[in-house]
Amino acid sequence: MDSHVNYNHSSNVSTTKVRVGLIGCGQVAQVVHIPTLGFLSDYFRITYLCDVSTGALEHCQAKIPAPGPNIPRITKNATELCSSDDVDVVFILSSDEYHAEQAILALQHDKCVFVEKPAALNLRDIDRIQQAEKSSKGKLMVGYMRRYASAFESAIKEIGGIDKILYARVRDIIGPNSTFVDQSGMFPKTFNDLEERDVSDRKDRATELVHHALEVECNAPASASAITMWRVLGVLGTHDISAMREVLGMPLGLVGVHTGFPFWSVLFQYSGFAVSYESGIHSVPQFDAHIEAYGQDKIVRIQYDTPYVKGLPITVHVSENVNGSLKETVIRQTYEDAYTQELKHVYDWIRLGKPVKTTIEDARLDTEILQMIMKADSRCVQARSGIP
Question: Under CATH, which number does the domain 18-144 receive?
Answer without folding.
Answer: 3.40.50.720
